[in-house]
Every structure is written in C-alpha cells, then in structure tokens.
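Annotated sample (chain length 194).
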Amino acid sequence: MLTLTQYLVREHVGMLKIKDAYDIVDPKDGTKIGEAKEEVPGWVVALRFLLNKQMLPTSVNITDARTGTLVVRLNRGFTLFRAKVFIAGADGTRMGYFRSKILSFGGGFNVFDMKDEKFAEVKGDWKGWNFRFLDKDGQEIGTVTKKWAGLGKELFTSADNYMIAVKDFGAQQAAYNTLLLAAGIAIDTIYKEQ
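Output written by the structure step:
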C-alpha cells in the first residue's frame, strides 16, 4: 500500500454522519487498497451534537485493505486555537505531529518530528482545495488536491475526494507515503469537517 506515488481518497457519504470514513484507492485501476476510519468514544459522539467537531478529540486509523493491518494512526486531543495531531506508526511509535498555523490564508500546518523540530509544512491555496507538501528547504515533495465529486455530491453532502501525489523517493517511499497519507486525511478529518 505504501509503494505507490498516487492515491485517491474518497470520503463515504452518509446522512447525519457521526464518524468519518474514507476509501483509499489506486487511481490507476480503481482498486481499493486501504481505508481510513475515525474512532471516537461515545462521550465525544454525544458532545459533537453540542460543540464544534474540530474542538473535540478524535483518532483516525488508516489500514491496508488487503491485510487489514494498521498502517498509521492520527490522534488529536482537545483543541481551542491550534490543532496538534500526532502521527503514530503501526507499532504505536510516534513519528511526529502536525500543528495548524495560527494565520493561514488557504489552510495548512507545519510538520514536526518528536524532537519538536519542524521538517516540513503543508500549504493550502486561497480556496483551501489544493495543498503542497514542502520539505524544510521549500522543495515540493507531494500534493493533496481536492477533486470535483459531481454536482449532487458537492451540493448536498460534505463528502470530499482528494488526490494525493508523492514524488518518487525510492527506498524511502514508504516513510514519505505514510506522512502524505496522514496529511491528506488530516486535511479533511481534522481541519475541514465541521
């Protein structure tokens, strides 16, 4: 699952959806290769009817569809102004975290390692539809682009589709893909969903 350079992330459509779920698809042949599901305790679900969803804690598990194994997990605690989303690998080891920017015209966040050193950033355009993943030198290493899902879906649902493209990094492809997949899911689940 982590060897591709492109992924299509399709959000599930649902009436009064309480938890978000996504299919991760190989855009070349349309094969479902993974899924991402939001996991939240019941008390958080109840609070979502009273408070803004972006303020409450959440977790998202990204799993390989073929094996059912966990690939990466995103965790966010309570948030007031700046969201902090921890990224953990399949073994539970934290890899780093995303921290939203205080002022960002198109949305975006910084990427830190566990030593609190910034090593990348995700920058959104003025519409908040297209995001660039940049390394610490400002070089583009990937993109996350919102895709048009059709008139009915766009008008009547909050379900979005995203294309994630990663440059070819050879032996380190899995590490970059893990971060870009996590960023793509975080853009929608953590920062965009209301």
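Annotation: Residues 6-192 form a domain with the Porin fold (CATH 2.40.160).
Annotation: Confidence is low (pLDDT under 50) at residues 151-157.
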